[in-house]
Design a protein that fits this description.
Elements (H helix, E strand, L loop, with lengths): L1 E7 L7 H14 L4 E7 L11 H4 L3 E2 L5 E2 L2 H9 L8 E3 H14 L9 H17 L12 E6 L9 H14 L4 E8 L2 E2 L4 E2 L2 H12 L6 E6 L5 H11 L6 E5 L7 H7 L2 H9 L8 H15 L3 E8 L9 H13 L3 E8 L12 H10 L2 E4 L8 H13 L4 E4 L1 H13 L7 E2 L9 E5 L13 E8 L6 H5 L5 E8 L1 E3 L4 H6 L2 E6 L6 E6 L5 E4 L14 H11 L4
Parallel strand pairs: 1-6, 1-7, 2-5, 2-6, 7-10, 10-11, 12-13, 12-14, 14-15, 15-23, 16-17
Antiparallel strand pairs: 3-4, 8-9, 17-20, 18-19, 21-22, 22-23
Helix pairs in contact: 1-3, 1-9, 4-5, 5-6, 12-18, 14-15
The protein binds glutamine.
The site of glutamine (GLN) has 10 residues, from strand 19.
Length: 548
Amino acid sequence: MKYVIVTGGVLSGLGKGITASSIGILLKAAGLRLTSIKIDPYLNCDAGTMSPFEHGEVFVLDDGGEVDLDLGNYERFLDIALGRDNNITTGKVYANVIEKERRGDYLGKTVQVVPHITNEIQDWIVRVANVCSDGSGETPDACIIELGGTVGDIESAPFIEALRQFQFRVGQNNVCFVHVSLVPVMGPVGEQKTKPTQHTVKELRGLGIIPDILVCRSAKPLEADTRAKLAAFCHVDEEAVVSAHDVSNLYQIPSSFYEQSVLRKVSQQLGFEVPDELPFLDEWQRMADKIDTLSEEVHIAMVGKYTGLSDSYLSVIKALQHSALAVDRKLVIDWIESTDLDPNENSEKQDEAWELLKAADGILVPGGFGIRGIEGKIAAAHYARTNNVPYLGVCLGLQTATIEFCRNVLGLENANSTEFDENTPTPAVIFMPEISKTHMGGTMRLGTKPTPFLVDDCKIRRLYGGADHVDERHRHRYEVNPELIEQIEAAGLVYVGKDETGLRCEIMELNDHPYFVGTQYHPEFKSRPNRPSPPFLGLLKAAVGLPI
Ligand code: GLN
């Protein structure tokens, strides 16, 4: 097993995840079977209890793992499917070690960070790296590991120490350390400054890890003398100093790295052959170049409540981008804070928000939790339904569209979800019986579940290629009230896919509308650049007037 370990310095948000994924693309192009691990040094056992405002989206895996959004990047870039154990957190590691201590596994010993925590981390890495993630049933050849945070953080110290030891455990020729740093530009002539990188490398080396490759984030390509200086001061050869400058789109990065000999460098370090022809990389590059040529726009209004941080909806944005690419359009997302659409909110931005909504080619209401902004989402669904505007509601977006339909078509005036009004006389969406009311972490209906189609032909089924069922990922506590289904369907909003019990509504489609679709699951998590998620593709097709 070969390991590429990506660490970061100076500041967060430099793109360690994209660096790691891009190196993954190069390894995949060279014919290696890949998997990846993201280490998050925080104490939470998983990302499920973290606010999307603070931490970006919670990504959901097939096994129901609620994980850091970087795992989504790995799945999309490398076209793999990971499990909850591919995201290691301090909370998970300590929970395991404490459980072992209570069981008596270390009987007689003093349990300590070194060696018990550091061994647990290493054992975990080896175990997970050997799990197939591409559906082939074969063991991966290489594992890309990203350590979250920056070197020097108190929290990451046990992980750095574990990774230092790890190189000896698996052999130094099986490990390639990549360190991502920042090269800021200062002064009137725009001098590229190397000192922050010198410092972070010094710190990393002080902890016993010598980077094999330095990836330097900078606005412009690294100049020759910057590169030379970094090589001299950071104890790497010049070829190992890689410029990660701004590019027209993220998909350009693998080729940029390739042109800077990153693949050669990694293959020398890890000892594998690189074939002369790399058709996968060529194909990837064609896609990257195509994105740059798109000029005709398609506008999608995103009616959300965490719109201040676009990372909160990362996978939704990606699924829209993949779909826009498939219909040859440049995607423009018009962000609308849902409270601004609520007539009772008296928001100053109300007119502006409605103008944006009305000008959009399609409307998307993504998932969410809590009452804030709900009436605005209901208003958006009403507008889309009554004006024949293409609409996709994901999870909460299906629930709010259902509430709107109950209120305005069935005449159930106060229809609501018990999430927002516990005592509503007309519960259109209700708490699912099997969900815990006392524990928030990991207790939703989570992960991949099969949804059989119940009608022979409808738009959404066609988009899924006529499949008899779909396997998509879930994350919710509430569902459409089974007692209202018959009435709703009789009025034209049909739940064309339900779970295997036939009671739980999963996919809704409105009759006699260009595209009014909702899914209780989150289709965005399985979208791929060259295989857009079908419900999203449907939205984009309808938005540009293509037949479905
Ligand atoms: N809050 C809703 C529920 O728990 C929707 C969840 C979501 O959109 N992910 O069912």
